[in-house]
Structure formats: structure tokens, C-alpha cells
Amino acid sequence: MAMLSFGQHIIKSSAVFLKTEWSFALVNRKPVVPGRILFRFTVMTGHVHVHLLPRKAPALKKNDSIFDEKHDWESEDVPTKWRSEEEMAKEATELRSLFS
């Protein structure tokens, strides 16, 4: 599997756990919650992507506070929260087995 693009980011195949002709799913570099994945699919112009965040009660006191936490967590200014390629590859391998 060749490298894929996700916006301005190049995605290594080791982070991808599902690929079809028009879509792919990958593990997240800085997941705000464990198990967060990204799903990208192609449309006529450009692409659309969806953030899937597993949630377990009572993870948050206020349901919509996930959006504030996601914004703060994903700041590019905090690279210490980024996962290693090895961590991402391990999670992608586990998820890949569910879709084979």
C-alpha cells in the first residue's frame, strides 16, 4: 500500500487499517480518547473525513465538552502528545484484523 495524503499530511500505510477504492481509515496521531480513528472518503471534488470517537459513560460530565477537549488536545503546538509510528502501527494492525 502506497503512502496516502490526508489534507497536508502524508499517511504511512502502517497507520491505515482499511482501504477501499474511494476511502481509507486510519488511526489517529493524537487521539483525544482511546480508539479514536479517522475515516476519509473521496467525493467529486476534494474529500470528506469523519472523526470517530468511542465514548463510554460517564466519560464527560457535559456531553458536548468533547469538542472543546478535542480542540485543545489537537493543538499542533504540543508535539509531546503525538504517538510513535510503532504505537500507531500496532493499533492499526489490531483494527485491520477486524476488517479482513
Unreliable stretches covering 5 or more consecutive residues: none
Any idea of the CATH topology? HIT family, subunit A
Question: Mean pLDDT score, rounded?
Answer: 79
Outline: globular
Rg of Cα set? 14 Å
* Percent in strands: 25-35%
What profile does the largest beta sheet have? 4 strands, antiparallel
Number of strand segments:
6
CATH superfamily: HIT-like
Strand order of the largest sheet: 3-4-5-6
Fraction of residues in helix? 10-25%
CATH architecture: 2-Layer Sandwich
Give the total of domains.
1
| Topology pattern, helix = H, strand = E | EEEEEEHH
Account of the 3D structure:
By secondary structure, this protein is of the alpha+beta class. It has a single domain, classed as HIT family, subunit A (2-Layer Sandwich). It is 23% helix and 27% strand. The chain contains two helices and six strands. The strands form two sheets. It has a four-stranded antiparallel beta sheet. A hairpin with a 4-residue loop joins β5 and β6. The mean pLDDT is 79.
